[in-house]
Amino acid sequence: MRFAMVGLILAFTVFACAKQTSNGTARLSWNPVKTDLSGTTLTNIAGYKIYYGTSPRAMGTVVVLKNPSQTSYVVENLHAGTWYFIINIANEWGPIHSATWATAYQTAIARLRAAGYSTPIMIDTGGWGQDVADLLTYAKEVFNSDPQKNIIFSFHVYRGLSQVWTPATLNAFALQLRALSASTGMAFVFAEFGPGRDLGPSPTLLTPQQVIGAAEAAGIGWMGWSWDCNNLPNGASNNNSFSMTLNGPGMYTVPSDLTTYGKEVVLSSYGLVNARKATDF
Asked: Among residues 9, 113, 153, 180, which one has the fewest Cβ atoms lying within 10 Å of its Cβ?
């Protein structure tokens, strides 16, 4: 049976949870990242990402922390049971088509496992999360370095680096990832994409439907950026932003609360309303 992570990303730490009869919390803490694995001081850390859910195969809730000095976070409103958390080692770190990307992550994985972390580890490819070659050339050795084989590789679908993505070239790349997954057991996800329409710092004309369609056809996961990336005062957004919601940020009760982008990701025939809840298998 195939499993693919699908969902959306929360750009801010304000998010809604379903009401529960009893609530629990999980306090996460970590040492702030100050240097890369070579010891070089880092000056451009964007922050941290926390992924969590009720199964190692169902961690569709994402919190993005934009303060690189932050060292703790409390997840609230957790119902009774076991909860799992993904560690995203670094956001979009690494050079393109480079063994340095592979060796750095192999070192990081070894340190995390030695420290007792058994959660799935999500790793972005290099080049702002958009490098094809790091995944196609080096992901296998990174995956094989993990004694648990518990790695998820993330690719961000925006404009592209050496080539500007078209539906045809993205479909072909997604099929390459499917072949790697079939031959090695690796998991891949298109873990960021936006509304298209040439918006943003890495603009593309690819539509959400084209990105999700390529992922679905190849049997890999997808996650849209983002639920609540507001561009107007008081948490509001419009259709010129990367937000899926118009107010809040992140408030959604009825379809009219969604941007055009949000309606595509949530309500369309391939959207989240039609996603099935993951179970262990």
From this structure: 113
